[in-house]
Amino acid sequence: MSLDTIVATATPWGRGALAVVRLSGPDAREIARSVCPGGPRWIPRRASLRRAVQADGTLLDEVVATWMPGPRSYTGFDVVELSCHGNPVVVEALVAACIARGARPARPGEFTRQAVENGRLDLVAAESVDALIRARSLAGARLAAEAAGRIEAVTTRLRERLLDLAAELEARLDHPGEDLGTWSDEAVVAALDGIAEECRGLAASWHEGRVRIEGARVGLIGPVNAGKSSLFNGLVGQERALVSDEPGTTRDVVERAVMLDDLAVTFLDSAGERPAATALERAGQALAADLLADVELVLLVLAGHRPVGALERGLVDRLGSRPHIVVATHADVVRESAGDGTGDGAGDGAVAPIPDDEMPEDDPRRRALWVSNTTGEGIDALRAAIRAALVDRPAAAPAAVLVSHRQQGLMRSIADCCEEARTALTGLAGPAVAAEALTRALAALAELTGEDAREAVLDRMFARFCIGK
């Protein structure tokens, strides 16, 4: 563990009323005293107004200084926070003054890493801090704030169950043939199955955690003149994409981030597809394919008033099993042509103007969501369907939602180990192999919380944190 005293700005870069410069380490108070000489006595956890000076003694700024002695501080070391005026020139000069007196610039996430290494936080809590900082919605911030406690409760329960199973298998190994175990084979197998299933469910929760914290990307694809750009404008609430009867109007990918209730969603409108596309249109379609490869949900937009052909069916085939919603546009036009003028554009759920049983089995518009870009009919129902497809939980929701890919990978590892132990017990390998698999499951659980975290794991994890945290 480094014994350097580190310094960084703890507030975002830019102009503002205030900014905070944070020092942490064994010499934090002495460096702060040198930067802010004189003034009142330093009292733990009591803010005091002081004059910060440069190395030559000239006044830099008036600051509010707060000293928090270790180990009862965020990092476990002595911490001093200097609240100054939020001019970047002043902030940079204050950081430079601390460096000139012996501090070292902090690396990304180094304050939180100190907290982990000093036992103030475990890795799950540290990742929750990172998720809280990155959250793009209040729902994501709440999830991140609750994540550490919920995951800790789950891991504590999993550890106890794994230890009980490991003890059962060790008793069988140490005293073979003496029937010292207290569990039947069926009970051990059932317990392993239960843990594996729970860990698989927790691993799957990372999708919800990522979407709630980082937001989701939803891409619109479809043939030219299907109403994609009009639908995009309706979903984002602004005219961001050009709308024209001329095919191929959209060539670049247009994107816009909005809040869908409590969820941050970025919609991407891509170039429409047609067989006789120009070279520029084909370039736009290739760009769209690259960008849409990473979206969480695809809206396949089809013109409800035109016959479905090979192009539309080909788009459905290309999507395969990817999460998607088929949207049929021009609901008002179809309804009027059928002699039914009921579509008044109330904006709520739309009744399909063509019943499913009146369309061919291979028509992609069967079970589609129908909308009218002109009247707004069906747009609210589509927004609700998008949100449900992105984050609505299944009936058997996990006890906690994971907030990092690292947590997901370790939960999968624990599930794999339990399944390996089950296979060993029900096959020829026996309890020795099963016990070894459970040992690896317990090691993965220890790595999850940081009890057995290697230096490389810490380096990789904290590299994505912001400087100053």
Structural features, described:
The chain has 469 residues and is of the alpha/beta class. It has three domains: 6-122, Probable tRNA modification gtpase trme, domain 1 (Gyrase A, domain 2, 2-Layer Sandwich); 130-205 and 399-450, Four Helix Bundle (Hemerythrin (Met), subunit A) (Up-down Bundle); 211-391, P-loop containing nucleotide triphosphate hydrolases (Rossmann fold, 3-Layer(aba) Sandwich), CATH 3.40.50. The protein is 45% helix and 16% strand. The protein contains 15 helices and twelve strands. The strands form two sheets. The chain has a six-stranded mixed beta sheet, covered by helices on one side. β8 and β9 (263-269) form a beta hairpin. α4 (123-134) runs antiparallel to α5, α5 (138-174) packs antiparallel against α6 (185-204) and α6 runs antiparallel to α13 (405-426).
Summarize the structure.
The protein is α/β, with parallel strands linked by helices. It has helices at about 30-35, 90-100, 110-115, 125-135, 140-175, 185-205, 205-215, 230-235, 280-290, 310-320, 330-335, 380-390, 405-425, 430-450, 455-460, and strands at about 5-10, 15-25, 50-55, 60-70, 80-85, 105, 215-220, 255-260, 265-270, 295-305, 325-330, 370. It has a 6-stranded mixed sheet, with helices on one face. The chain has a 6-stranded mixed sheet with strand order 8-9-7-10-11-12, sandwiched between helices.
What would you call the structural class? alpha/beta
What is Rg? Answer: 29 Å
What's the main sheet like? 6 strands, mixed
Mean pLDDT: 85
Number of helices: 15
Strand content: 15-25%
